[in-house]
From TrEMBL:
PANTHER family: PROPHAGE INTEGRASE, PROPHAGE INTEGRASE INTS-RELATED. It holds the Pfam family Phage_int_M. InterPro entries: DNA_brk_join_enz, Integrase-like_cat_sf, Integrase_catalytic, Integrase_DNA-bd_sf, Integrase_DNA_bind_dom, Integrase_recombinase_N, Phage_int_M, Phage_Integrase. CDD domains: INT_P4_C. Gene3D superfamilies: 1.10.150.130, Integrase, DNA-binding domain (3.30.160.390), Intergrase catalytic core (1.10.443.10). Belongs to the 'phage' integrase family. This is Phage integrase family protein. GO terms for molecular function: DNA binding. Keywords: DNA integration, DNA recombination, DNA-binding. It comes from Celeribacter neptunius. GO terms for biological process: DNA integration; DNA recombination.
C-alpha cells in the first residue's frame, strides 16, 4: 500500500516549484512557492487520469485529501471521478433554472393552445401578479409546498378563483421544468393545496338568466342600437361575446357564419373554423346591424375598433340585472336539455364546445350543421313567439 499523508500544511507552504506526492495518488504541483494546484492521479478502466482538485493555497491540504478520498472511492466502484464530477456540475447548472425563466418558456410553449396566442394575458397574469414577485428568482428545483403555501395564502380565501388559477399555472410550470429534465417536486402544488385547506369562498358560476325569462328580455332589445343588436345575435347563436364583438361581414355567406377557430374559446387548437347556422331571425338582426358596420365589423365602437367586452354587460347592469351576457350560453344549453331531445354531441357543438377526444374527432368530422340549423330556428322561434311547447329534435 502506498504511504499516505507525506506532506504537512506547513511543509507544503514552504515548498518551491515542482511536483510533490502526498501519497495514494494525491500530488501538489507548484508553479512557485506561493502558487500551485492539487492533482489526483487515478487509473480507471486501464486509463491514467489526472483530476484537478483546486488551487493551492485556496484549497487546504485537508480539503484536498478529502476530495481525493471521494474520487478514490468512485474509482474503486468502477466510476470515472472526472466524468462523475462533470455530470454533477451539469446537473447543478440545469437545476439552477429560475422560475421566471421556466414560466416564460412554459407560456411560450402553450401560446398555440391559447386564444389569440395568449395576448390578452389571462394565462400568464395569475403567475405574473401573484407568484413570480415572490418565487420568480428561485431555482425551480428548490420550490416546495411551503414556498407555494406562503405565496398563495394571502389570496387563497379572498381571491379564491384567482388563487386556483395561479396554483394551476404553477403546476404546469413545474411539469414543463420536469419535461426539460430538471429535478422538481411535481407534487408540491397538491401538497400546498392540502396545507392551504378548503377555500371559504368557492368560485361562483357566471349568473345566467333562466331560459323561460329570455324571450321577454330578447323582445326588450328593440331600439336597433349596436348594443341591442349585438346582444340579440349573442342570444340567438349561443356564442361568446368575443365572437360576436369581432363579427365581420366577410365571414357570413348565405345563412352560415364561419367564425375563425381562435375566436371560439373551447375549440382552441381546432384545425377547422366553426360554422354557425344562422336562423331567419339571426339574418334579420345582421341585416339591421349592417347600417352600423365600419371597416368590415358588424358591431363597431363609437370611436374605433369594436365594442368592448363590457358594453353588453353594462346594459344589463343598468337594468338592475345580476345576469351577464356570457350566461345566455347556459340559458340556451338549459333550454336544449329541458325542452328538446337533442343528442348530447349536437347540443354541445351548438354552443361551440369540442366534443370527444382527439382520436374520436379524427374519425367523426361532422359539425352537425343541418341538425343545428333546425335547433337554432326553433330557439329563435321560441325567443320571438315565447313558445312554451316542448320541441323534439331528432
Amino acid at each position: 500500500m502506498r504511504t499516505r499523508n507525506r506532506l504537512s500544511a506547513k511543509g507544503a507552504a514552504s515548498l518551491g516549484a515542482g511536483k510533490f506526492a502526498d501519497g495514494a495518488g494525491l500530488w501538489l504541483y507548484k508553479q512557485e512557492r506561493e502558487r500551485g494546484k492539487w492533482v489526483f492521479r487515478v487509473t480507471v478502466h486501464g486509463k491514467r487520469r489526472e483530476m484537478g482538485l483546486g488551487a493551492f493555497p485556496d484549497v487546504s491540504l485537508a480539503d484536498a485529501r478529502k476530495k481525493a478520498d471521494d474520487a478514490r472511492a468512485m474509482a474503486q466502484d468502477g466510476l470515472d471521478p472526472i466524468k462523475e464530477r462533470e455530470k454533477a456540475r451539469r446537473k447543478a447548472e440545469r437545476n439552477m433554472h429560475l422560475l421566471n425563466d421556466i414560466a416564460l418558456d412554459a407560456f411560450e410553449a402553450r401560446k398555440a393552445e391559447l386564444k389569440g396566442d395568449g395576448k390578452a394575458g389571462r394565462w400568464f397574469s395569475p403567475l405574473e401578479i401573484h407568484v413570480l414577485p415572490r418565487l420568480g428568482k428561485m431555482p425551480v428545483a428548490e420550490i416546495d409546498q411551503i414556498d407555494i403555501r406562503d405565496t398563495l395564502a394571502p389570496i387563497w380565501h379572498d381571491k379564491a378563483h384567482t388563487a386556483k388559477k395561479a396554483l394551476n399555472r404553477l403546476s404546469l410550470c413545474l411539469k414543463h421544468a420536469a419535461a426539460l429534465g430538471l429535478e422538481v417536486d411535481l407534487q408540491a402544488p397538491e401538497k400546498a393545496r392540502a396545507l392551504l385547506g378548503k377555500q371559504r369562498h368557492e368560485t361562483k358560476n357566471i349568473p345566467a338568466m333562466p331560459w323561460p325569462e329570455v324571450p321577454a328580455f330578447y323582445k326588450s332589445l328593440n331600439d336597433g342600437t349596436v348594443t341591442h343588436l349585438a346582444l340579440r345575435l349573442l342570444i340567438l347563436t349561443g356564442l361568446r361575446s368575443a365572437a360576436i364583438r369581432f363579427a365581420r361581414l366577410d365571414e357570413i355567406e348565405g345563412d352560415v357564419w364561419t367564425v375563425p377557430a381562435e375566436r371560439v374559446k373551447g375549440r382552441v387548437g381546432a384545425t377547422q373554423p366553426f360554422r354557425v347556422p344562422l336562423s331567419g331571425e339571426a339574418l334579420a338582426v345582421i341585416e339591421q346591424a349592417k347600417r352600423h358596420a365600419r371597416d368590415g365589423f358588424l358591431f363597431p365602437s363609437v370611436r374605433k375598433g369594436v365594442i368592448s367586452g363590457a358594453t353588453m354587460s353594462r346594459h344589463m347592469e343598468r337594468l338592475g340585472m345580476e345576469y351577464r351576457p356570457h350566461g345566455f350560453r347556459s340559458s340556451f344549453r338549459d333550454w336544449i336539455a329541458e325542452s328538446t331531445n337533442t343528442p348530447h354531441d349536437v347540443a354541445e357543438t351548438a354552443i361551440g364546445h369540442t366534443v370527444g377526444g382527439a382520436v374520436e374527432r379524427a374519425y367523426k368530422r361532422t359539425d352537425f350543421l343541418e341538425q343545428r340549423r333546425a335547433l337554432h330556428e326553433r330557439w329563435a322561434g321560441y325567443l320571438t313567439a315565447k313558445a312554451d311547447n316542448v320541441v323534439r329534435i331528432g
